[in-house]
Write a structure and sequence with these properties.
The structure is a single chain. By secondary structure, the protein is mainly beta. The protein folds into 2 domains: 268 residues, no CATH class; 144 residues, Porin (Beta Barrel). The strands form 5 sheets. Strands 2, 3, 4, 5, 13, 14, 16, 17 and 18 form a 9-stranded antiparallel β-sheet that branches. Strands 19-20-21-22-23-24-25-26 form an 8-stranded antiparallel barrel. A 4-stranded antiparallel β-sheet has the order 1-6-7-8, with no helix packed on it. The chain is globular and about 70 Å long. The two termini are 24 Å apart. 45% of the residues are buried.
Length: 413
């Protein structure tokens, strides 16, 4: 695997190679996502938030993750683009580059695509914050991916928001599992950030603002990630709520929020030339994602057990999910315990490390895809095969509006 941010990184790839059964294939993974539904209603009765879940396609979510010699993950980056989000109603907003770093700065991509950061200009720099002079012709990219806090300048906070928030993020939190010593617990990573993307109050000289100041944390939405990681495979869940058709940029009187959320399975993909052509292997792990029972409710996160059995001679993979419940204290069952089969790519082909198929769970139908990660290994009771496996699925019912977007990650035992 080669990632532009350095040899210690594992990355999913920044483009879609193709889409099979509703799941997008990338250079080093597979991905799926869904969109909110409250913003699709006419009229929109909840413009300050976004609820619901429906299948979506066409966007790109790229994960990048550093790992040390003990496979401990850090420095997550999620890049989101082409998600149907616009500040002015004319063009797609600048790509999202989220790092959850706790320092100020303007995050951007270098010429080679690596993530970098420059010092955030003061609000008086109207060559950077050029909305004051250019209005809607201003440089949108200068108002995206900015971390303003910690900051000594005051926040431009609404009078009815008291106290005004002063923190965008507390950084990335991680918990190590016991998989390194033969256990079943994966490493866990979580982070959130309140963002201000698109807020022209970052600069001086704009209407209704005087003196130095910055937008307040969360003024235009929030983002979050949750990640499950092992040595070679990773499952990243991402969520982003963003304000669109901003009144300053669009002047349409239609400012509201949209939400997008999805799963990315990625990592050090197995060399397709090394994938076995005989024998079997068994993997165990988890399935994780969101499930909405109708087209309007806010979907809870769920988790369940995953068991994957591979027959390398027939090129068939059996995927079983059990004990699927909401990932909270209530542990409410969700109807996503099911078994399905998927076909692997032909032996010796460039997609020998890839599997995909239609899938169904009760009244839900859609698709599932996956990749193998790591070298081929033997030992244990799981046979000989690639060390780890992961994938993504999307299921829905057009009549009821029920939708699930999820991913799975498992290790050969």
């Amino acid at each position: 695997m080669s990632c532009v941010d350095g040899p210690e990184y594992q990355c999913s790839g920044g483009g879609i190679i193709r889409t099979d059964n509703g799941i997008a294939l990338t250079r080093s993974g597979v991905q799926v996502y869904g969109k909110s539904t409250s913003d699709l209603a006419t009229p929109n009765t909840k413009p300050t938030t976004a609820l619901g879940l429906a299948p979506a396609s066409g966007g790109v979510a790229e994960f990048r993750l550093a790992k040390d010699a003990n496979s401990v993950a850090s420095k997550p980056v999620v890049l989101l683009s082409n998600l149907g989000l616009s500040w002015d109603g004319k063009v797609e907003r600048p790509p999202i580059i989220e790092t959850f770093r706790t320092a100020t700065g303007h995050v951007q991509l270098a010429a080679n695509g690596a993530v970098t950061s420059i010092a955030l200009p003061p609000s008086s720099d109207l060559s950077f914050y050029n909305f004051a002079t250019l209005k809607t012709a201003a440089t949108q990219g200068n108002y995206a991916n900015n971390a303003y806090f910690p900051r000594t300048d005051p926040s431009r906070c609404p009078a009815d928001l008291n106290p005004c928030p002063t923190t965008e993020t507390s950084g990335v939190q991680t918990v190590q599992g016991d998989w390194r010593t033969g256990g079943s617990q994966l490493d866990w990573m979580v982070a959130t950030r309140l963002h201000e993307d698109g807020d022209v109050h970052a600069g001086d000289g704009i209407p209704n603002s005087t003196g130095p100041g910055v937008p307040f944390p969360g003024g235009k939405g929030y983002r979050g990630i949750a990640g499950w990681t092992e040595q070679y495979a990773n499952l990243g869940a991402w969520e982003s709520q963003d304000t669109v058709l901003l009144e300053e940029w669009a002047a349409l009187g239609q400012e509201h929020n949209k939400k997008r959320r999805g799963l990315v399975s990625f990592g050090a993909v197995t060399d397709p030339a090394t994938v076995p052509t005989t024998g079997t292997a068994t993997y165990s792990g988890i399935v994780y994602g969101w499930y909405a029972s109708n087209g309007t409710e806010e979907p809870p996160v769920f988790r369940g057990d995953a068991t994957i059995t591979v027959d390398f001679a027939t090129r068939m993979v059996t995927i079983a999910f059990q004990n699927t419940k909401t990932f909270d204290a209530a542990g409410t069952a969700v109807p996503l315990s099911f078994t399905t089969s998927a076909a692997m790519g032909a032996a010796g082909a460039s997609v020998a490390n890839y599997l995909t198929a239609p899938a169904a769970a009760g009244a839900l139908a859609g698709g599932i895809s996956g990749r193998y990660y790591g070298p081929v290994v033997s030992g244990g009771t799981g046979g000989t095969g690639p060390a780890e496996i992961g994938g993504a699925l999307q299921l829905s019912n057009a009549t009821t509006g029920a939708t699930a977007v999820a991913g799975f990650i498992a290790r050969k035992r």
